[in-house]
C-alpha cells in the first residue's frame, strides 16, 4: 500500500526545505507554508537557482511557527536570523548584500510561488525512485537526489516510478487520494538545470542530464503513458486538488495513497 513517508515544505522558494510530520492543504491545493515566500530582483524576476547559481551557497534553517529564518553562507561560521514578517527589510538588505543587487522578498498566502501555477498541489515522488536515480550516479545518494528534486510529498511501500501512474494521456487527469483528500495527478514534471547541480555546491555534473535521459528511458515502466514524454528529462508528478476552495485539511506522514481508477 503506498504510504506518505515524508512531507517537505520550502518556506522560501529556492532555499532549503523543512521536513514536517503534517501539513495543511490550502483551498488552492498548495501545502500551507510551501514556497510562501520568494526572492525577486528589481525587474520582478525570481532570484532562484535557475537564474543565479549563487543561491546554492545559502544554507537556511526555519522556525515555522514564528516564521524565523537563519541564513548561513556555505563554508562560513556566521549565521544571521530574521523574522520573515517583522524584519523583512533587514532580511532583504542581507540578501541584497550577498547577491550584489537589490533583492525583495514577497509573500503569497494563497498559492505560494509554485513553478506550475495551474497545478498548485503537492509534487509526488516515491522513495524507490530516489534510490533508483541515485544508483545511476557514483557521486549521489538518496538524500542528494531528494535535495535536488525538492518534492513536497514522498511515498513508500511501492516500486520505483510508481508515481508515473498518476498521469495519463495529454489532457486527462488521474484521480487519487491522500488520506481522505481527493487530488488529481496532472503531468510528469519537466526538470531544469537545478536538478543537474549539486544542491550544496551548485556545481553541475557534466554528464548528469545525458545519463539521466538514457536511464530514464531504459527504466520507464511498460505501462507508462509514453505520449507524455516528448523527452525523458522528467521526474515527479504535478497535482492539483480535485475540489478547489474547500476548507483547510491536513496531510500526515502515514496517510495511505490510493488510486481511484
Automatic annotation (TrEMBL):
Residues 88-260 form the MOSC domain. InterPro entries: MoCF_Sase_C, MOCOS_middle. The lineage of its organism: Bacteria, Bacillati, Cyanobacteriota, Cyanophyceae, Nostocales. Coiled coil: none annotated. One of its GO terms (molecular function) is catalytic activity. This is Molybdenum cofactor biosysynthesis protein. It comes from Mastigocoleus testarum BC008. Pfam families: MOSC (PF03473), MOSC_N (PF03476).
